[in-house]
Amino acid sequence: MAENSSQNLANHTRYDPLFHFFLLPVVLALWIRGVVVLVRHPGWEHAWGLLLVTALFVAAGKARGYALKVQDRVIRLEERLRFASLLPEPLRSQSLKLNEAQLIALRFASDEEAPALVQRALTENLSRADIKKAIQTWRPDNWRV
């Protein structure tokens, strides 16, 4: 998605083309090939090759997962700081009860509607999807990978 395009519920999902459309398909194809070769020609060298491709697949997934987890932690911190200056005191203290998924979804809410959505998220225990659907004025997050 281009940096200047308008972000909303329908288009906020981000893909990393090199990861999603190159690395994963190539490693998956190598893994499938490794299974086929091992079944047709059993042997230690083919089993070892399949094990190496499996390790590559796991490493790629773990590396992506670690990066997303770090981003989630940064988003939590950013939202806590934003809420500290945005929310009135009783709600600010209650906002500490929001779970990680709720905080991550609330990053898309504009400053004007964030207090009401925080209150709704707390009282109705809204899910990430429910919060995103409730947002009227979308605040884009173009830095997410």
Short description:
The chain has helices at residues 17-40, 44-86, 89-94, 100-106, 114-124, 128-134. With 145 residues, it is mainly alpha-helical.
* Portion in helices: 55-70%
Poorly predicted segments: none
Strand content: under 5%
Overall morphology = elongated
Distance between the termini: 11 Å
Tell me the Rg in angstroms: 21 Å
User: Care to count the β-strands?
Assistant: 0
Structural class: mainly alpha
Mind summarizing the main beta sheet? none
Number of separate domains: 1
Summarize the helices and strands and which ones pair or pack.
Blueprint: H1 17-40, H2 44-86, H3 89-94, H4 100-106, H5 114-124, H6 128-134
Helix pairs in contact: 1-2, 2-4, 4-6
Question: If you had to describe this structure to a student in words, what would you say it looks like?
Answer:
This protein is mainly α and 145 residues long. It has one domain (17-134). 68% of the residues lie in helices and 0% in strands. It has six helices and no strands. Helix 1 (17-40) packs antiparallel against helix 2. The chain is elongated, with a radius of gyration of 21 Å.
